Amino acid sequence: MTEKRLTGRIARENIRQMQVPRPPQGVIDGFLALGDATGIVSDAMDELGIACGVVGAHILRPTIPGARIVGPALTVRNVLQRADALEGARNHVNKMAEFEAHNLATPGDVLVIDGVSGMSNMGGISAQTGKRQGEAGAIVFGGVRDVGHSRSVDYPIWSTELSAVTGKWRLQTIEINGPIQIGGVRVEPGDLVIADETSVCFVPRERMTEVLVLAQQKAEAEDIRCRAIDDGIAVPDISRATYGEKA
After folding, report:
1. Residue-wise burial string across 124-149, b where 16 or more C-beta atoms lie within 10 A, e elsewhere
2. Residues near 58 by Cβ (< 8 Å), separated by ≥ 6?
3. How far apart are CA 142 and CA 72, in angstroms?
4. What angle do CA 224, 227, 228 make, to 5 degrees?
5. Are residues 112 and 139 in contact, defined by beta-carbon separation less than 8 angstroms?
6. What is the CA radius of gyration of the chain?
7. In the 8-state DSSP scheme, what is residue 14?
8. What's the pLDDT at 244?
9. I need a labelling partner for 194 at 20 to 30 A (CA). Which of 4, 21, 25, 58 fits?
10. CA angle centred on 60, ends 187 and 201, rounded to 5°
11. DSSP collapsed to 3 states, 100-149
12. Closest C-alpha among 98, 117, 123, 119 to residue 109
């Protein structure tokens, strides 16, 4: 594969991987077919002994109601600049580099930003660029802005906050495609991101196939229970089936 021409927004040595590992064939479609899957995925991870990789909607809130995405994580790490923000604005010293991540994106990637609170880590032009690049959407542990713009181009974002304050003069991107922390969850590039209105799940890339298999089994069992509810099954029987209790 020919290496992409870089934008120069961040030093090459701070880009740990030029492309995130791709999921096995059929994995993304399999998770998408589950619908709003974060609850089932969370349960499957518990039963497989995978440490909790779930961040709830009380922390990461979607900008587009009803949105759901599945894709491998393309990671970005931002930190607060030491320099004075107003001096940076006067001199136009911009150290944000999520555009380099967009430049490196493969269609289907999910941009995952370990960001800075109190300011925007990406805005409308960035969201439109990500959409153009074929990204599924973004997860931002920090602020974002221009929500109307990102909605208008159908680019879903899950963020911890909204802020009109620009990060251009206030934060610095120090690494792309390295390990990051999102709500206490360690996320590696290529880990699978599954997001809906309930939560955001991060599934380790080496475990995603077995999580999918168990999640599909659990979804099928849930469908059977739902049909039984509609058919009038007694509440005690529903309870036992739901919580795994023996009769």
Report:
1. bebbbbbbebebbbbbbbbbbbbbee
2. none
3. 20
4. 85
5. yes
6. 20
7. G
8. 58
9. 4
10. 45
11. HHHHHCCCCCEEEEECCCCCECCCHHHHHHHHHCCCCEEEEEEEECCHHH
12. 98
Local confidence band at 247 (pLDDT 50, 70, 90 cut-offs): very low
CB 185 within 8 A of CB 108: no
| 131 CB-near residues (< 8 Å, 6+ apart) | 153, 154, 155
Q: What's at 42, amino acid-wise?
A: S
User: Distance between CA atoms of 60 and 138, rounded to whole angstroms?
Assistant: 11
Grouping H, G, I as helix, E, B as strand and the rest as coil, residue 82 is coil
pTM summary value: 0.92
pLDDT band with cut points at 50, 70 and 90 for residue 245: low
Q: What's the chain's average pLDDT?
A: 93
Q: How many CB atoms lie within 10 A of CB 247?
A: 6
